[in-house]
Design a protein that fits this description.
This protein has 6 helices and 13 strands. By secondary structure, it is of the alpha+beta class. It has 2 domains: 3-61 and 133-243, 2-Layer Sandwich (60s Ribosomal Protein L30, Chain: A); 63-131, Alpha-Beta Complex (CofE-like fold). Strands 1-13-2-9-10 form a 5-stranded mixed β-sheet. α1 packs across α5 (137-152) and α3 (72-81) crosses α4 (85-94). The longest helix has 16 residues, at 137-152.
Amino acid sequence: MEPSMITSSFTAFALEPFPTIKPGEDLAEAITTVMQAQDVTLHDGDVIVVASKAVSTSENRRVDLTTVTPSAEALDLSARTGKPAEVVQLILDESDEHFVVGAHGPIIARHRLGLQLTAAGVDRDGPDAAWLLPTDPDSSARALRDSLAAATGITVAVVIADSDGRADRRGATVLSIGAAGITPLRVTEHVEPDGGVKHQEETLTDLVAAAAGLILGQRGRGAPVVVLRGVAYEPDNGGVRSMLHRRVP
């Protein structure tokens, strides 16, 4: 790894208070409005990490559960896991493969985008609705990056982050589902004692998302946008899609 690509320290801060995003609202405009109100100036190379729910809301990805008709498979999974059958049906609709952890869940599903996520990224919104992931998170990240650059004249990277559980443990972490302007993989090479070279790849955008996850709006905090400053990375527009084992067109 080039010395210029080594991160020795960075800072992170939320843009808050942040207004509640309404369906169809321009997310880039909301971000710049908050920045102006707080007298925040972006720097070239900043990484803007945005919670996926804010992006989904902006893209109006809310589904009314009364419009969902559960299949026999959804009814069976609902009985096993305790999840509402309509939510389970959305999980099945959004994925092409799934398995249930233990006797009662969670349901781990491979989203049609190629991402393996708890419940295929479907997030309940009260008893009567649910949120789906952005249609194309990488495209959403690029559009947001371009809009912020046009509004500020600053070159930044954007990472869209989503909370996710693990099949092997309780609790949730944060990972990247979309990215723009930053390489998703950080490649390192180390010389072994025997003279051989060990090649390693790190999921850099996941590391960035996890760092921001310490601040992001979990459990109602309402801080869906975090700025990371000082993170070393190589610009790249391949997006998270480019590092998936199973890529979609």
